[in-house]
Amino acid sequence: MVLDALVPAILEQKVTGKEAFASYRRLVRAYGEAAPGAEAAARRLMVAPTPEQLRSVPSWAWLQMGVDHSRSRTLMGAVRVASALERLVDVPCDEADRRLRTLPGIGIWTSAEVRARAMGDADAVSFGDYHVAKDIGWAMTGKPVDDEQLAVLLEPYRPHRLRIQVLVNQAGLRRPRRGPRMTLPNHLPTRAG
Fold this sequence. Notes:
Layout: H1 2-11, H2 17-31, E1 33-34, H3 38-42, E2 46-47, H4 51-55, H5 59-64, H6 69-80, H7 82-86, H8 93-100, H9 108-119, H10 132-141, H11 147-154, H12 161-170
Antiparallel strand pairs: 1-2
């Protein structure tokens, strides 16, 4: 359960949602298994890869799936300790946060995403997210804020700070967006010559 939440969270690090979802889709299609049942087969539903299947992914395949070296290294490090990660559901969320963040490449954002998805931690705010602080700040004060200001704004809602994040998102309360969109990078190496 924890690894099932951690893999997509790692793939979502420092990229757009569109890039992350495409990478995860490619990973599941290439290395997952068909979901059981006739209905699932008819719909081509897939089950996410197991730790053993993830270990079999060659380094070059990550690049083809749009996953840079930093994220693939983080993911493979997590796969090596998959059984220990699964035991995190039995410890308090603060302790799970501490243990997750001991893994190279796992920081405050990734830990919060995993605790929210796998453990139901109602206080796991996505600090470090490109949009979260700005959007919640705009919804609550009429202006974007940074992570430090967001922590102050959300403190009265502890231990339910994630619920505020979810409510703001579900209500569609986002700051106005202006300017050009980012172009999606290509993680494949270029050929010289």
